[in-house]
Design a protein that fits this description.
- The complex is a heterodimer of chains A (363) and B (521).
- Chain A is globular and about 70 Å long.
- Chain A contains 14 helices and two strands.
- Chain A has a two-stranded parallel sheet.
- Chain A has a single domain, classed as Up-down Bundle (Amino acid/polyamine transporter I), CATH 1.20.1740.10.
- Chain B has 521 residues and is of the alpha+beta class.
- The chains are: A mainly alpha (363), B alpha+beta (521).
- At the A-B interface, strand 1, helix 1, helix 6, helix 7 and helix 12 of A face helix 14 of B.
C-alpha cells in the first residue's frame, strides 16, 4: 500500500523539522550575535527559504508523479542515487547532532545522574519503533505533538506576561546592527534550510499540486514559532543574560510562575517539547532509511537496527564534550549544512527536469 | 440411507439427503439423529387419515401458536381441501411465517433454530412454521450503560428483538440487514445492519468478507467476533465498539458505521471505531452542548490522570523532588519517612490491592459487592497506612486513579488504561519523567499505527482534519452538525440543513412569506 499524507501533514512536518531542535540549541548563538535585534532574523529566513522553495519546485506542476518509492518514476536513476547519497550524508549529520543535543539537554534538565549511553540507547529504541511503523505513523504522531507544542508556544507570552519587560528590546534595528543581523541570518540559514528533507517525501503527498504552498506555510509556522520564542527570551531574560546561557529556551520556560504554587511548569512544557523532537529525529531516521533503499533499489527495513547502533555510537564519539558539539552546531554546520542543502536542491531540480522531459517524451 | 449404514464418525448433516415421501423413514432418521435428546418432541397426528408429524424442541417454540394456528387448523379444515403442499402451507394454518424445504439438513437446522417442522406422509417437503418462543429476558435498561437522559431500553439476547429495536429507531427503507450464521456447533445467527445510502459499500464488503472467513466451533458472545475480525488483535486497545443501547447503534448507523448484532448476547458491535468514540457517551448528544463539552474535557483529563498519576507520583518523589512546592514536599517527605519500601513498590502494593478489591466486588452479589469494595478499600487503606506499609499520599493517589478510571464511559477502554498504568509506573521508577515520556511516545506511536477497518484509530486528530474536529474535543450544537464524518461515511455526507434556531429569523422569514403572498394577490 502506498503511503500517503495530506498537505496539512506536510506543513506540520516541515514546521516541526525546522523548529524542534533549533529552539533548544541555537537561540544562544543567535542572541550572542545580534542581541536584542534577533527577533527580526526569522523574517529574513522566511524570505530566503521561500525563495529556495520556489526555485526548487520550478516545473513541479508539470510532472505527473515523483514517488521515489515506486518504479513509475522515469527520471534518471543516477540522479536518484546521487540524491540518496547526499541525503544520507546530510541526514546522518542532523540526526547525530540532534541526538547528542537532546541527550545533553536531558542529562542537564531531567536526569543528571543517568549515564549518557542509557539515554541515547533508550531514545534510539523509541526512534526505532517509530521508524519501523512507517512514514504515515510519523506524520500522524507529528500532527498531535507539534500542534500541542505550537499552542503552548502561542500561549507562552501570556504565561510570561508578568515577566516581560519591553525595554529589553531597545534599541531596535539600528543601522549598525545590520551586519550582526546578517551574520545571524547566515548562521541560522542552514538550520532552517534543513527542510530540504521534504524532497524525499513530496511524492507521497496528495494532492501533489499544493506541495509548494504547504511547504511555504510550514516555513511560515516555524518562523512564527521562532519569532515568539526569541521575542519572549529577549523581553524576559534580556539579550545580555541569554547570550551567556546554554539553554535560554529552557531558562525562559522556568520563569513561568502562576502564583507561588505553580512555578515548575517548565517540566510540563518540556513534556510537550520532547515528543516533538522525537518526531523530528524519527523523520530524519526514516529519511536515512529511505535514502538507503533508494540507493540500493530495495524496500527493506534490514538497515534500521545496525543504523541505529551506528548513530548511537557516533553521537557519543563524534563530540568529545558539549563544547565541541556546540562548535559543530553553530560554526561548522552553518557552512557544511548550507553547502549540502544547495547541492540537494540542485540535484532535486535536475531530477524534476529529467522527469518532466521523460514524461513529455512518453506523453 | 439409514443412519445405521453410515460409517462411524460421519457427520449425518453433511450428507445431502432429501426429505422422503415416506414419513416413517423421515421419522426414523430424525429419531436416530436426536437420540438422547428428550427435549425434542415428535407429535404424531393424522389429517383425513394421512399421517402427519410435528417436530420441535420443547422450550424453543411458542406451543400455543402451534396448537391454535397450526394443529387446530389442520385438524378442523383439512376435510374441505386437497392435501397437497400448497394447501397445507397456505390454507391449513394461520402462522405468520411459513416456509418449506426439501433438504433434511435444512430441516434439522430449522428444528435447532427453534422452528417447528411439519412432515406429511406422501409429501417430499418439510413445512417450516416460524413460531419461535420460549422464555427470554425482556427489554430492560442496559446495566453497563446507564444514562440520566435518553432511552432506557437495551438489547436482549434475542436477535429479532434487537433488530426490531433498531428498526423502531430507523424507519428507513435504506436500513439493510444481512444475515449470517457462525459457529459449527452453535450456528449463531448474526445480523449486519447498515444504512445503504450512507455506509461505504467497500466497508460493508470488507466486514462481510471477514465474517465469512470465520471458522470456529462456536460463537457464544460478540467478544469472539470482535477478536476474530479486528485489525490488530495484539493491541491493548479495542478497535471495535460494543454497546447495549439501540440508540447508540442507530446514531452510529446514521454516521455511516456498521452494526453487528448477535443472537444470544445483548452486546452489539459497531465498526469502525476510533479512540474518540470510546470516550463519548450517548448523553453527550442529549444534553446541552455546553455540558457535553465540559464532560468531554473532564473525561480527557481523568484519562490522563488514570494513566499517569501513579507514575508521576513515583517520578516526582524519586527523581524530581524540586518540582513540588516546598510545603507540599515537606508533607510528602514526612509521610514517606517511615515507609520501608521505595515509591514503586508502595504504588504496586496499593494498585494491585485495589484491582483485587475491584475484581472481587464484581463477582460478589450486587447487594454486598459495592459495600465490600468501599469498606475494603477504606479499611485496607487505613490499616496499611497505620501499619506503615504505605503512605497516606499513596492511598489518595490510588483512590483518585480508581475514580478517574470510572469516568471512562466504555469499559473496554477503561480496562486498557488500567493495564497500561503498570508499565508507566515501571518506566517512571527507572527513568523518572523521561521514562514516562518514553512510555507516552511509544503509546502514541502505537495508537497512530492502529486502524479499525482502514480508518486510522486517532482520526480526525491524526491525521489532522480540522473541519471534522467538531465532535471530538467539543460537541458543536445540533444545528451546526451539517455533515457526517468523512473518514467513516462513504456517501451522502450532508446530514441536515437546519437554520440557526432563532425567533428573529423565524419571524423575519414568516413576514417575508406573508408579504410574498399579499403581493401575489
Amino acid at each position: 500500500m502506498k503511503t500517503r499524507i495530506s498537505n496539512l501533514q506536510l506543513t506540520l512536518l516541515t514546521a516541526n523539522f525546522i523548529t524542534a531542535s533549533t529552539l533548544l540549541v541555537m537561540p544562544q548563538a543567535y542572541l550572542d550575535l545580534s542581541l536584542q535585534n534577533t527577533w527580526f532574523v526569522p523574517f529574513l529566513w522566511f524570505l530566503l527559504t521561500t525563495l529556495l522553495i520556489t526555485t526548487a519546485f520550478v516545473g513541479w506542476n508539470k510532472i505527473e508523479t515523483l514517488d521515489f518509492q515506486s518504479d513509475e518514476t522515469r527520471s534518471s536513476r543516477t540522479g536518484q542515487k546521487l540524491l540518496a547519497i547526499l541525503m544520507i550524508l546530510f541526514l546522518m549529520f542532523i540526526l547525530i547532532r540532534d541526538l547528542r543535543a537532546f541527550t545533553d539537554f536531558t542529562g542537564t534538565a531531567l536526569l543528571e545522574l543517568t549515564p549518557q549511553p542509557v539515554i541515547i540507547f533508550t531514545s534510539l529504541i523509541c526512534l526505532l519503533y517509530l521508524v519501523w511503523l512507517g512514514f504515515e505513523v510519523i506524520a500522524r504522531f507529528n500532527d498531535i505533538y507539534f500542534s500541542l507544542l505550537f499552542i503552548i508556544i502561542l500561549f507562552l507570552p501570556l504565561l510570561l506576561l508578568n515577566e516581560i519587560d519591553m525595554a529589553k528590546l531597545l534599541p531596535p534595528l539600528q543601522i549598525n546592527a545590520v551586519p550582526s543581523i546578517l551574520q545571524t541570518t547566515f548562521v541560522g540559514l542552514a538550520w532552517v534550510g534543513e527542510l530540504v528533507i521534504i524532497f524525499l517525501f513530496v511524492g507521497n503527498v496528495q494532492p501533489k499540486s499544493d506541495v509548494r504552498r504547504s511547504v511555504i506555510w510550514g516555513v511560515g509556522l516555524a518562523v512564527i514559532f521562532i519569532f515568539i520564542l526569541l521575542g519572549s527570551i529577549i523581553s524576559v531574560l534580556g539579550s545580555t543574560l541569554a547570550r551567556y546561557t546554554v539553554y535560554p529556551s529552557y531558562i525562559l520556560v522556568r520563569q513561568i510562575n502562576i502564583t507561588d504554587f505553580l512555578d515548575r511548569l517548565d517540566l510540563l512544557v518540556v513534556s510537550f517539547w520532547i515528543p516533538a523532537i522525537f518526531s523530528k529525529m524519527a523523520l530524519t531516521f526514516y529519511g536515512i532509511h529511505r535514502s538507503f533503499n533508494m540507493l540500493f533499489g530495495t524496500d527493506t527495513k534490514i538497515f534500521l537496527v545496525p543504523l541505529a547502533l551506528i548513530i548511537g555510537f557516533l553521537s557519543m564519539m563524534m563530540f568529545g564534550n558539549n563544547i565541541s558539539h556546540f562548535y559543530f552546531s553553530i560554526y561548522v554546520w552553518s557552512t557544511l549544512g548550507l553547502l549540502l542543502e544547495i547541492l540537494i536542491v540542485a540535484v532535486f531540480m535536475w531530477i524534476v527536469r529529467k522527469e518532466r522531459l521523460a514524461q513529455s517524451r512518453d506523453g | 440411507m439409514g443412519l445405521s449404514k453410515m460409517k462411524k464418525g460421519t457427520d449425518p448433516l453433511t450428507i445431502d439427503q432429501n426429505i422422503e415421501r415416506n414419513i416413517e423413514k423421515n421419522e426414523e432418521f430424525l429419531r436416530a439423529l436426536f437420540t438422547d435428546s428428550t427435549d425434542l418432541i415428535f407429535r404424531t397426528f393424522s389429517i383425513e387419515g394421512v399421517k402427519a408429524l410435528l417436530v420441535f424442541i420443547d422450550g424453543m417454540v411458542d406451543t400455543k401458536s402451534i396448537q391454535f394456528h397450526a394443529l387446530m387448523h389442520m385438524l378442523t379444515r383439512a376435510d374441505s381441501m386437497q392435501l397437497n403442499l400448497q394447501n397445507v402451507k397456505n390454507q391449513m394454518n394461520s402462522i405468520s411465517s411459513v416456509n418449506e424445504t426439501k433438504k433434511m439438513k435444512e430441516t434439522v437446522s430449522h428444528i435447532l433454530d427453534g422452528n417447528c417442522i411439519l412432515l406429511v406422509d406422501r409429501l417430499d417437503h418439510a413445512i417450516v412454521f416460524d413460531a419461535k418462543g420460549g422464555e427470554r429476558r425482556s427489554v430492560s435498561e442496559p446495566e453497563s450503560e446507564a444514562a440520566i437522559r435518553g432511552p432506557r431500553e437495551g438489547f436482549t439476547e434475542n436477535l429479532r428483538v434487537n433488530t426490531s429495536l433498531v428498526r423502531r429507531k430507523l424507519k428507513s427503507q435504506h436500513l439493510k440487514l444481512k444475515s449470517m450464521k457462525l459457529g459449527e456447533h452453535t450456528k449463531t445467527s448474526l445480523a449486519i445492519m447498515y444504512l445503504e445510502d450512507v455506509a461505504s459499500s467497500q466497508l460493508v464488503e470488507e466486514v462481510t468478507r471477514r465474517l465469512e472467513k470465520v471458522d470456529i466451533d462456536g460463537v457464544l458472545e460478540s467478544g469472539y467476533i470482535e477478536e476474530l475480525i479486528e485489525d490488530n488483535p495484539w493491541s491493548f486497545f479495542p478497535q471495535i465498539q460494543h454497546t447495549e443501547r439501540p440508540d447508540t447503534v442507530a446514531a452510529n448507523l446514521l454516521e455511516g458505521r456498521i452494526a453487528i448484532l448477535l443472537d444470544g448476547t445483548p452486546f452489539a458491535l459497531i465498526i469502525p471505531t476510533t479512540f474518540w468514540q470510546l470516550i463519548q457517551a450517548s448523553e453527550d448528544y442529549y444534553e446541552r452542548f455546553h455540558i457535553s463539552i465540559f464532560l468531554r474535557w473532564l473525561r480527557l483529563i481523568f484519562i490522563a490522570i488514570a494513566l499517569f498519576l501513579p507514575a508521576l507520583y513515583i517520578a516526582v518523589t524519586t527523581y524530581h523532588q524540586e518540582m513540588l512546592p516546598t510545603s507540599l514536599l515537606l508533607s510528602v517527605a514526612s509521610s514517606r519517612e517511615a515507609i520501608p519500601f521505595p515509591a514503586l513498590i508502595e504504588a504496586l502494593i496499593m494498585e494491585i490491592s485495589f484491582e483485587a478489591l475491584r475484581e472481587a466486588g464484581v463477582r460478589l452479589p450486587k447487594t454486598i459487592g459495592q459495600a465490600v469494595s468501599i469498606l475494603g478499600a477504606l479499611v485496607v487503606g487505613q490499616a496499611a497506612v497505620q501499619a506503615g506499609i504505605v503512605s497516606a499520599p499513596m492511598v489518595i493517589i490510588v483512590s483518585i486513579t480508581g475514580i478517574a478510571s470510572f469516568t471512562i464511559p466504555r469499559f473496554n477502554l477503561a480496562i486498557s488504561i488500567r493495564l497500561l498504568r503498570f508499565p508507566m509506573m515501571i518506566l517512571a521508577a527507572i527513568l523518572g519523567l523521561y521514562g514516562i515520556l518514553i512510555g507516552l511516545i511509544l503509546l502514541t506511536a502505537h495508537l497512530c499505527k492502529l486502524r479499525s477497518f482502514g480508518v486510522p484509530y486517532l482520526a480526525p486528530v491524526a491525521p489532522l482534519t480540522l473541519h471534522e474536529m467538531k465532535d471530538i474535543f467539543i460537541r458543536v450544537p445540533w444545528w451546526s452538525m451539517k455533515y457526517r464524518p468523512k473518514h467513516v461515511a462513504g456517501q451522502n455526507l450532508e446530514r441536515e440543513n437546519t437554520q440557526f434556531p432563532s425567533p428573529k429569523r423565524t419571524l423575519r422569514s414568516s413576514k417575508k412569506s406573508r408579504t410574498k403572498g399579499e403581493n401575489r394577490k
